[in-house]
Amino acid sequence: MTSPQHTDLSQISERTNVQLPSWKSDAQPFVQIENITKKFDDFIAVDNISLDIYKNELFCLLGGSGSGKSTLLRMLAGFETPTSGRILIDGVDMAGIQPWSRPVNMMFQSYALFPHLTVAENVAFGLKREGIRGAEVKQRVTEMLDLVQLGHLGKRKPNQLSGGQRQRVALARSLIKRPKLLLLDEPLGALDKKLREETQFELINIQDELGVTFVVVTHDQEEAMTLASRIGVMNHGVIVQTDEPQDVYEYPNSRFVAEFVGSVNLFEGQVTVDEPDTVCVTSPEAGGELCVNHGISCAPNQDVHVAVRPEKIRVSETRPDQTYNCLQGTILDIAYMGSLSVFKVKLASGKEVRVTQPNTNRESGGRFTWDDSVYLSWDMDSCVVLTS
Amino acid sequence: MSASKIAWINDSYAKMTRYNFFRRVNWGRFSVVSVPYLWLAIFFFIPFVVVFKISLSEAAIAVPPYTPILDWNLEEAYVTLKISLSNYLFLLEDDFYLSAYLSSIKVAAISTFFTLLVAFPIAYLMARTEGSTRALLLALVILPFWTSFLLRVYAWMGLLKKNGLINETLMSLGLIDQPLIMMQTDFAVYIGIVYTYLPFMVLPLYSALEKMDMTLLEAAEDLGARPYQSFFLITLPLAMPGVIAGCLLVFIPAVGEFVIPALLGGSDTLMIGRVLWDEFFLNRDWPMASGVAVVMLIILVLPIMLIRNSQGKEGAA
C-alpha cells in the first residue's frame, strides 16, 4: 500500500471508471434493506427504508444527528432489531441472527478498543473467537498491522497511542476477520482536519485492495463526497436521495439535500415557461427571470425554488449580456479565505446571496469592495429547479 | 581549581538546595495532608505499639494484669529490660491457635467469595441503569446501614432459628417435615457475613463497572464473542480493581469478625476473634491476647502488601 503522502489521486478517480458501477449494472445487490422501520417507543428513528447496496461499494449514509443513520447501521450489525421489514446480506435474511454470528464487522465511532489488551491482542481478538490459534493468528495480525502501518506498535496499550493510531487499530481489528461487509460509524470524526484528509484516501485504498463492501455513516458532507461511490442522504428516518456524490451535489432533488450538501442560494418563484428542455421561473425575490435547461414535472404557476451554488455565480461591475439569471445587488460583506473569496451580496428585495470567487491571481481578492454595486449572473446549466 | 574550593562550592550548593527545599514546601497543603496522618499515628500506630509492648510481657495478677518490660530501681541503681517471647512461642506450639487462624481465614475466604457472587449482579445492574433508578438501587444497598448492625444480626437469628420464619414457612408449605438446623452452624455465619458486608463489595464493584464503556461489549460481540465470553474477556478484567478492593474490604474485617460467629455460629465455629475475646475477658491474659492480635495483623497485612505490590507493577508496565 502506498503511504498517504504519496497517494496518487489519478489512481483513485480511475477506480470508478474501470467498469460500469455495480448499481448501474443488473447485478444482485449484496445488502438488501427492505421496508425497514425502527421505533423507539413513540419515536420513529428509521421510517420504512428500502435500499440496495452492491458488492465493493463504498456507500455513505449522510445525515444530521437524529436522522436515523446510526440506527440503520446498528440494525445491519445486529445491535438493534428492526420493528418491521427485513435485511438480507448476501442473500441471507438476518432476522434472528445475533451480532456474533453475522458476516459483518463494525468500526465504532469511539473506536471501542479494549483498554486492557495490547494493540496486537485487540486485533487478534476476533480471530481467537473463531478458534484460530498460534502461528496463524500471529501472521494475520502482523499482516493487518502492516497494512495500517502500525507494525511496530503491536505491544502498546491503546492509551499509549495517538488518535490517528487508535483509528488505525480499530480499522485493523474490524478487518481481521475478513468480513464481507464493514460498517464504519463516523470513522474519521475524531481526527483533526489534516489527518482526516490523509486517512480518507487511505480508507479508499484499503477498501479497494481488500474488496470489502463498506457502509459509512457520517454527518460530514465533505467526508461523504470524498469517500463514497454512492451517497444516501438521510433526514428524519428517511433516505431523501441516493446518488453518486457528483449527482447529489449538482442535482439535489429537494431543498433539504441542496442545503445539507454544500451551501446553496435558493430563490422562490412561480413557473412561467414549462418546456421539456427549459423551465423559466419568475422570482420577485431575485428581481428577475431565472431559467434552467432541464424540464420538471409541475403544474403551471406552481411555487418552486431555483437553487444555485455560490461558486457557479459570476460577479461583474457591468451588466452582462443576458436577460435571464441576472441579478443586481450591493456587496454587504467580503471574506477573504486565501484560495477563494466569499461575497455576501444584498439584492433589492433584501435577499442575501452568497457568492464565492476563486482568487486566480494575487490581485483578484481586491477587485471589489464593500458597498460596490455588482451584477450576478450564471448559466442555464448551473442551477436546478426544486419542487420540494 | 583547588580541592578545597570545590568542597566549598559543593557545601554552599548543598546549603542552597536545603534552603530552597524549605522555601518550596507548601505549608497550607502540608497541614491539610498531615491531619489524617496525625490521626492514624495517634489512634492506630501508637495503640499498636502499646499492644505490641504488652505482647512481649507476661501475665500477672496485678493492675494492669501484666509484668512491666522495663523495671528500674533508682536506690539500688538497676534497670532491667525483660522481653518475653513466650506468648509467641505458645502461639506456635499450641495447635489450637493455628487451627483458629486457619479456620478464620477459611470462613472469611468462603464468605468473601459468596459476597462477590451476590454483589456482582447487583453492582452490574446499578451500573447499567440510569438516573432515578440508579439512585434508588444505590439507596437500597446503603439502606441497611441505617439500622443497628446488632439488630440486623438478631433479625437473622429470628429468621434462621428452629421455630423461625424460614422453618415455619417451609413446614407450613409442606416442603419439609423436620425443621432445618441452621442456627449455630457455619452456614449461619456465612449468611451473616455475606449479608453484613455486601455493601462493601457492591460499592467498589459498582464504581469499577460504572466506568466501563458499554460499546466495548458491542465491539466484543461484533468480533464474534458470545455474551459469556464478553463477560470473562472484557467485563471481568475491567472490573478487576473493584473486585480486588471489594474482596479486601470484606475479607480483612471478616477474618477478625467476632459478633457474627458469636451470635450465629455454634460452639464448633472457631474464629480468631472469639479466641481473642476469650483470652482477654475470660482468661484475663492480656499479653497472650495481644500476641494473638499482633500475629493476626501480620497474617492480614502481608498478603495485602503483596497484592498491592503486584498491582503497582502492573499499573506501571
Automatic annotation (TrEMBL), chain A:
Catalytic activity: ATP + H2O + polyamine-[polyamine-binding protein]Side 1 = ADP + phosphate + polyamineSide 2 + [polyamine-binding protein]Side 1
Gene3D superfamilies membership: 2.40.50.100, P-loop containing nucleotide triphosphate hydrolases
Keywords recorded for this protein, A-Z: ATP-binding, Cell inner membrane, Cell membrane, Membrane, Nucleotide-binding, Translocase, Transport
Taxonomy, superkingdom: Bacteria
GO molecular function: ABC-type polyamine transporter activity; ATP binding; ATP hydrolysis activity
Catalytic activity, EC: 7.6.2.11
UniProt-listed GO biological process terms: putrescine transport
InterPro entries cross-referenced by the UniProt entry: AAA+_ATPase, ABC_SmlMolc_Importer, ABC_transporter-like_ATP-bd, ABC_transporter-like_CS, Mo/tungstate-bd_C_term_dom, P-loop_NTPase, PotA-like, Transp-assoc_OB_typ2
Enzyme type, top EC level: translocase
Keyword Cell membrane belongs to the record: yes
Record-annotated ABC transporter domain positions: 31-261
SMART domains in the record: AAA (SM00382)
GO cellular component, one term: ATP-binding cassette (ABC) transporter complex
Family: Belongs to the ABC transporter superfamily. Spermidine/putrescine importer (TC 3.A.1.11.1) family.
Subunit structure: The complex is composed of two ATP-binding proteins (PotA), two transmembrane proteins (PotB and PotC) and a solute-binding protein (PotD).
Physiological role: Part of the ABC transporter complex PotABCD involved in spermidine/putrescine import. Responsible for energy coupling to the transport system.
Protein's name in the database: Spermidine/putrescine import ATP-binding protein PotA
Native organism taxonomy: Bacteria, Pseudomonadati, Pseudomonadota, Gammaproteobacteria, Oceanospirillales
